[in-house]
Amino acid sequence: MPRVLISDKLSPAAVEIFRRRGIEVDLKPGLSPAELRAIIAPYDGLAVRSATKVTRELIEAAPNLKVVGRAGIGVDNVDVTSATAHGVVVMNTPYGNAITTAEHAIAMMFALARQIPEASTSTKAGRWEKNRFMGVELFGKTLGLIGCGNIGSIVADRAVGLHMKVVAYDPFLSERRAVELGVEKVALDVLLERADFVTLHTPLTEQTRNILSRENLARLKRGARVINCARGGLVDEAALHDALTSGHLAGAALDVFETEPATESPLFALENVVCTPHLGAATAEAQENVALQVADQMADYLLSGAVSNAINMPSVTAEEAPRLKPYMALAQLLGAMAGQLTVARGGVIRAIRVEYEGHVAELNRRPLTAAALAGTLAPLMGAVNMVNAPVVAKERGIEVAETVHERRGDYASLLRVTMVTDRDEKSVAGTLVGEARPRLVEIKGIAVEADFAPDMLYVTNQDRPGFIGRFGMVLANAGINIATFHLGRAAQGGDAICLVSLDGPIPESVLAEVRTLPLVVQATPLRF
Ligand SMILES: NC(=O)c1ccc[n+]([C@@H]2O[C@H](COP(=O)([O-])OP(=O)(O)OC[C@H]3O[C@@H](n4cnc5c(N)ncnc54)[C@H](O)[C@@H]3O)[C@@H](O)[C@H]2O)c1
Ligand SMILES: O=C(O)[C@H](O)COP(=O)(O)O
């Protein structure tokens, strides 16, 4: 039974889902990084919000970990590169808290425009300062959106409803989408010049870090107001403080901070600053949404291999997963065979080709190619799986090509994996028997029919009488039982292949003897 650890405060709905789906779940929010590292080893899944930092050290301490589920949007607290390198899928819930966060940004805009928090504090303190709090109307004002994705679009919709003019800076926003949303797509400089209010809705990346830098804050209109409900680090906090105290900016509303938890900041002393403690996603509805969604997604992956909303892996729907699973196993086995033959021959890998023919060509091929890659690379590089194989191949400069053949051959479905090195090419092909059992049907273009077995021996020889008898005798003399025996040849008297499955690994001394037999070209033990 898979085990999941929830290390942040998630709605109890998540625990219920995991248990109902047969997953053992432990709820331990608030652990220190060292405490978390000490207990993570047995878990298959880790569910987090933004408080847990899923670092390289944590991932390295988690040999069983298969999936990290972020109950929320931002994954900047997860070291996705390390997770990928260790074959761990990282998934988030990209829509579950979008409305709630957009509403928080709008609430912050109202709070700023009418100084509601400060006015409330003053009124509760018994001071009736009716003349102190003079606000501004939102009607007719210009809202500048930096980032117009899921949350930015909802903010735009609400702002248009308030009769604001909305301008948006987002390099990935199409003109068509901008028109649909009723926003004007502009360059960042134009936004900074025109906006009365600026609201940020981008992830924190190398490109967006400090997007409201000292220079960009200075470009804002005098009297403009800034709202950040996205991520600390998007705004230069020291420069913001200076712009507010100098009177250049009229106010700022911050839900997120460079350092969190933010328990002290010079900004807290300013009257025209409204702060909340990263509450953007904090509504009952949003927390229920993200908890249910992350638990279902993680359970799907752990139980059936279905992948949704993964940051580092192609999607596999729950409907596809059962159909893909046997083909993934076939792709992985073919890859493992091609990889082992390549290791035996040596050489620098240049390319890996995966060919699809028949029904399999109509399936979702990305996970199949990833499985084939994982199979090929694992014998050469160790801990490679479907998650990290494409990255590993890219890092090593290995070209990956996928080919779909229209032609129909002897098999309803055929998968072929070829490894190209600076020396030669090695290809193996297979199919599924009864839609479930992987079967090898071709090695180096030579037809051969064999099931995969944990221990096999692959021999190439000259197609002349005498090989089979001597080969059988060597194994028999060593007390090695041949479980299955398969032969193939390119042409009469030409290159021939022999693939046998054994009841265990072949001892080195016996292998050496096989290699010295007349007619034998090479002998390679295979493990699956
Ligand atoms: N305060 C909170 O509690 C809270 C809650 C949810 C999300 N968030 C934050 O909000 C962010 C946005 O969420 P979303 O769901 O809208 O994400 P999204 O991916 O749908 O949208 C992000 C948008 O930013 C744009 N973008 C990327 N780089 C940019 C750049 N250099 N300049 C301008 N635009 C750029 C993208 O094109 C995209 O349209 C998340 O990444 C997360 O960090 C915060
Ligand atoms: O990216 C997000 O989804 C938000 O920042 C929410 O973070 P939280 O789950 O810690 O509230």
TrEMBL record:
<feature type="domain" description="ACT">
    <location>
        <begin position="457"/>
        <end position="517"/>
    </location>
</feature>
<dbReference type="InterPro" id="IPR050857">
    <property type="entry name" value="D-2-hydroxyacid_DH"/>
</dbReference>
<keyword id="KW-0560">Oxidoreductase</keyword>
<dbReference type="InterPro" id="IPR029753">
    <property type="entry name" value="D-isomer_DH_CS"/>
</dbReference>
<dbReference type="Pfam" id="PF02826">
    <property type="entry name" value="2-Hacid_dh_C"/>
</dbReference>
<comment type="pathway">
    <text>Amino-acid biosynthesis; L-serine biosynthesis; L-serine from 3-phospho-D-glycerate: step 1/3.</text>
</comment>
<dbReference type="Pfam" id="PF19304">
    <property type="entry name" value="PGDH_inter"/>
</dbReference>
<dbReference type="Pfam" id="PF00389">
    <property type="entry name" value="2-Hacid_dh"/>
</dbReference>
<keyword id="KW-0520">NAD</keyword>
<dbReference type="InterPro" id="IPR006139">
    <property type="entry name" value="D-isomer_2_OHA_DH_cat_dom"/>
</dbReference>
<dbReference type="InterPro" id="IPR006140">
    <property type="entry name" value="D-isomer_DH_NAD-bd"/>
</dbReference>
<dbReference type="GO" id="GO:0006564">
    <property type="term" value="P:L-serine biosynthetic process"/>
</dbReference>
<protein>
    <recommendedName>
        <fullName>D-3-phosphoglycerate dehydrogenase</fullName>
        <ecNumber>1.1.1.95</ecNumber>
    </recommendedName>
</protein>
<dbReference type="GO" id="GO:0004617">
    <property type="term" value="F:phosphoglycerate dehydrogenase activity"/>
</dbReference>
<dbReference type="Pfam" id="PF01842">
    <property type="entry name" value="ACT"/>
</dbReference>
<keyword id="KW-0718">Serine biosynthesis</keyword>
<comment type="function">
    <text>Catalyzes the reversible oxidation of 3-phospho-D-glycerate to 3-phosphonooxypyruvate, the first step of the phosphorylated L-serine biosynthesis pathway. Also catalyzes the reversible oxidation of 2-hydroxyglutarate to 2-oxoglutarate.</text>
</comment>
<feature type="domain" description="D-isomer specific 2-hydroxyacid dehydrogenase catalytic">
    <location>
        <begin position="4"/>
        <end position="312"/>
    </location>
</feature>
<dbReference type="InterPro" id="IPR029009">
    <property type="entry name" value="ASB_dom_sf"/>
</dbReference>
<keyword id="KW-0028">Amino-acid biosynthesis</keyword>
<dbReference type="GO" id="GO:0051287">
    <property type="term" value="F:NAD binding"/>
</dbReference>
<dbReference type="InterPro" id="IPR036291">
    <property type="entry name" value="NAD(P)-bd_dom_sf"/>
</dbReference>
<dbReference type="InterPro" id="IPR006236">
    <property type="entry name" value="PGDH"/>
</dbReference>
<dbReference type="InterPro" id="IPR045626">
    <property type="entry name" value="PGDH_ASB_dom"/>
</dbReference>
<dbReference type="InterPro" id="IPR045865">
    <property type="entry name" value="ACT-like_dom_sf"/>
</dbReference>
<feature type="domain" description="D-3-phosphoglycerate dehydrogenase ASB">
    <location>
        <begin position="323"/>
        <end position="444"/>
    </location>
</feature>
<comment type="similarity">
    <text>Belongs to the D-isomer specific 2-hydroxyacid dehydrogenase family.</text>
</comment>
<dbReference type="InterPro" id="IPR002912">
    <property type="entry name" value="ACT_dom"/>
</dbReference>
<feature type="domain" description="D-isomer specific 2-hydroxyacid dehydrogenase NAD-binding">
    <location>
        <begin position="106"/>
        <end position="280"/>
    </location>
</feature>
